[in-house]
């Protein structure tokens, strides 16, 4: 009922353009922000699938080494997404106030932070790379393969973080096309180089698994270089400003804790699913990958909401920000309901695209209706997450995510193991996690307490 009341409130969703004229935030403008953002979000997962296909032809050992290495690289970089989301929140407010130089300055300081933290990560993880690979791999041969890949790929961490910061400030100033081009340029280069270096084509040395890491590193160097070049061309100071960096770290702290909550939940779910057998964990991972893909799609609207809400609040227009919040939530919810309907109709056909194993399909069909039911919930949750991130309300999101994890998801996950509820118990926990978050973000949005104006 709170959600219905929130969506029915009437306020025209208008923002002020550079001439001070009120302009409606229509589908064209929203899609103009969301579609390029979606392209940038999906480009890397698509490339990773290509990388897996190339390395997979080297054999099981190389593929296992890549998997272990990717877990390490992903774990040390995904916790720092505040460099993109936090920077967007701060940059968009300054942009809405008409202070483009201040918005870009947020990107400069986030980039300095990316370089310092990135180099620190390289130093620490290089020192402990051997034990880390051994602990995750569970076998000397796999650990040795993973270590060869990790030693090279780790040097890309500062470049990955620079690209995150670049995406953050550019989204804040509503420039979403250049980041897409920069990301695609880097990944396209990696895609060309990967088979050449892995297999030794066109006269290049045959580097096998290490060739994959080198190709990734060169692509990251290109993308990161473009983002640095974009900053250098802006008429702003490139000197570090400790006061801004400290403020970004405060916001980053809340987003890191929130990210760790997600990691704990999904790692626990995978661990429990594995204890129900190979078919259960395979089914769980299959549907979870579909869920992650849908999440990226809905996130593109959430990032558009973050940019527009931050800009409106920076301009001192709380009513406009609230109207945008309602409008984006409506569109995200309608889109999510459409996706849920398509997936409900694909109950039999879609899983067959990924597997024909009878046991895995049986468990996928158990999970499927939980999955479908979560999508409309996600439509509202992800949109309002974007709204609250745009408002800089990261502390609230941190707290509610912890409550949802500790009070909903994790108890049901471990109870499903104790009482042998199988994958149905795991996905009941996921549904509970989303419902707790839904109640929290809708209540927060309805209260209007998040709409604090100013920079």
Structure commentary:
This protein is mostly helical and 455 residues long. It is 82% helix and 1% strand. The chain has 16 helices and two strands. The radius of gyration is 22 Å and the shape is globular.
Quick structural gist:
The chain has 16 helices and two strands. With 455 residues, the chain is mainly α. It has a two-stranded antiparallel sheet.
What are the main properties of this structure?
single chain, 455 residues, mainly alpha, 2 domains, two-stranded antiparallel ribbon, 16 helices, globular
Q: Taking Cα atoms only, what radius of gyration do you get, to the nearest Å?
A: 22 Å
Q: Note poorly predicted spans.
A: 15-23
Which overall shape is indicated by the principal axes computed on the Cα atoms?
globular
Helix content, binned percent? over 70%
Strand content: under 5%
Mean pLDDT: 86
Structural class: mainly alpha
Largest sheet: 2 strands, antiparallel
Topology:
Elements (H helix, E strand, L loop, with lengths): L1 H7 L5 E3 L5 E3 L2 H30 L3 H19 L3 H15 L3 H38 L2 H14 L3 H16 L4 H23 L9 H24 L9 H34 L2 H37 L3 H28 L3 H4 L5 H33 L3 H25 L3 H26 L8
Antiparallel strand pairs: 1-2
Helix pairs in contact: 1-16, 2-8, 2-11, 3-5, 3-6, 4-5, 4-7, 4-10, 4-11, 5-6, 5-7, 5-10, 6-9, 7-9, 8-9, 10-11, 10-15, 11-12, 11-14, 12-14, 14-16, 15-16
């Amino acid at each position: 009922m709170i959600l219905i009341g929130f969506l029915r409130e009437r306020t025209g969703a208008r923002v002020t353009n550079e001439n001070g004229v009120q302009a409606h935030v229509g589908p064209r403008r929203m899609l103009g922000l969301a579609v390029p953002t979606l392209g940038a979000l999906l480009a890397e997962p698509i490339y990773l699938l290509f990388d897996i296909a190339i390395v997979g032809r080297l054999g099981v050992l190389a593929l296992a080494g890549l998997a272990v290495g990717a877990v390490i690289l992903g774990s040390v970089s995904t916790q720092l997404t505040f460099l993109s989301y936090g920077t967007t929140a701060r940059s968009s407010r300054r942009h809405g106030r008409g202070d483009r130089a201040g918005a870009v300055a947020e990107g400069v300081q986030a980039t300095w932070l990316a370089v310092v933290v990135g180099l620190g990560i390289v130093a620490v993880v290089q020192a402990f790379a051997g034990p880390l690979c051994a602990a995750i791999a569970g076998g000397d041969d796999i650990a040795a393969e993973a270590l060869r890949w990790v030693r090279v790929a780790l040097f890309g961490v500062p470049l990955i973080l620079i690209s995150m910061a670049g995406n953050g400030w550019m989204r804040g100033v509503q420039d979403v096309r250049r980041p897409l081009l920069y990301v695609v340029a880097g990944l396209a280069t990696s895609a060309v180089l990967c088979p050449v270096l892995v297999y030794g084509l066109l006269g290049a040395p045959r580097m096998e698994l290490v060739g994959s890491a080198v190709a990734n590193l060169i692509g990251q160097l290109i993308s990161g270089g473009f983002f640095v070049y974009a900053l250098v061309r802006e008429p702003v100071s490139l000197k570090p400003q400790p006061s801004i960096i400290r403020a970004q770290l405060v916001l980053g702290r809340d987003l890191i804790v929130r990210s760790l909550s997600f990691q704990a939940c999904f790692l626990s779910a995978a661990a429990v699913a594995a204890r129900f057998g190979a078919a259960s964990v395979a089914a769980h991972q299959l549907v979870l990958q579909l869920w992650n893909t849908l999440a990226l799609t809905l996130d593109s609207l959430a990032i558009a909401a973050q940019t527009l809400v931050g800009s409106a609040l920076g301009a001192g227009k709380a009513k406009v920000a609230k109207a945008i919040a309602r409008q984006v939530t409506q569109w995200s919810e309608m889109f999510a309901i459409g996706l849920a309907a398509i997936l409900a109709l694909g109950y039999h056909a879609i899983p067959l695209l990924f597997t024909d194993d009878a046991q895995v399909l049986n468990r996928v069909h158990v999970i499927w209706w939980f999955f479908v039911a979560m999508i409309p919930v996600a439509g509202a949750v992800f949109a309002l997450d974007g709204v609250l991130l745009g408002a800089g309300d990261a502390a609230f999101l941190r707290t509610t995510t912890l409550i949802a994890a500790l009070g909903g998801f994790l108890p049901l996950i471990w109870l499903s193991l104790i009482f042998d509820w199988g994958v149905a118990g795991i996905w009941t926990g996921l549904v509970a996690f989303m419902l707790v978050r839904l109640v929290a973000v809708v209540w927060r949005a309805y209260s209007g307490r998040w709409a604090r104006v100013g920079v």
